[in-house]
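Q: Could you fold this chain for me?
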Amino acid sequence: MRLIAYTSVIFWLSVSSLQAEVSVKVGYLRQMLDRPPVLSNLDPVPDDLGLAGAQVGLADNQTTGGFLGHEYTLSHTDVPVGGDVLAAARDMLAVSSLLIVDAPAAALLRIADMPEAQGAILLNVAAADVALRNADCRANVFHTLPSDAMRADALMQFLVKKKWVRLAMISGAHDKDAALADVFRASAEKYGLSIAAEKAWNFDTDMRRNAAQEVPVFTQDLGDHDVLLVADTRDDYGRYIPYNTWLARPVVGTEGVVPAAWSPVVEQWGAAQLQSRFTDGAGRTMRPQDYAAWAAIRTIGEAVTRTGSAAPDVLRAYILSDEFELAGFKGRSMSFRKWNGQLRQPIPLSTSRALVAQAPLEGFLHQRNELDSLGLDQPESQCTAYED
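A: Sure. Below is the predicted structure, expressed as structure tokens.
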């Protein structure tokens, strides 16, 4: 009996010793941006946006890894406005081949094309540009932030279910507003909806005093419509649109009912527990970019747990395999699209106070995975980087 117990202890110690050899170093690279002034300062951007989500994900990985002997560490670098993001990426890749990138699309592509990044895993948590999942895709880049097309499709499914088929749209004067408006148009056409009238927001006055006078006149010539789309990526003027329009109509898009990767009002499917852990750690509510960063480091943790390896090639193969699943507190298992590296995920549609719906909505079917009804499906994608 003593011999059996002694042998069991030796076996446990041997297995633990082997497991403890897996050391997982993850880098978080964030390019700081010069944020222009907006019409309201009620919602300042948190200093730890994104990074706070990664830190909660790290704690989750460390909890699981503690049982398996896997050690996780997270280092982060902030590149100042105008700083050399490539030099910072080069330094971080010299330490780890697992890098979370919190930067605009142009910087992400430059990093992905660096010789030092070939063979690495880069996880995009900040750039929602459709092109990154399309013709501008890179085989070393995975996307845990949903694309603009995924969010737009979620919204259009909701409008179809509500039978709100006649749309009007207001978009801002900035490049990202124009790009999002283009995505809304494409998604509306995809779902058979019509944007009958559009206007560009061209005010730069203080709407805190003028909204009740200016917005009704501005929206008067949009004609009859069922719902008003707003494309305001900078969270600038959109807050002044609801309840000030000429016609009393629902507002959706970047204001009103908003499709996003995450919302503080998501409580089902165990989400309240994630929300509480995040609030305890960060002292604020979780935002979409925080969720994307959390999902990025949890993707690494799940792959390491299942493979017992921290080698990028092993992790990449597993992440793209049919076996990979990530529990994302959204009611469905999430996985990566093999053709462009995008994380499949449900999209909550919510107001600031309640969850309204979650896409994909019932009735929107797909031959493989209903989550692929959101965003670029394989036949639509021009990405060839992932082809074997």
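A (continued): The first strand starts at residue 23 and ends at 31.
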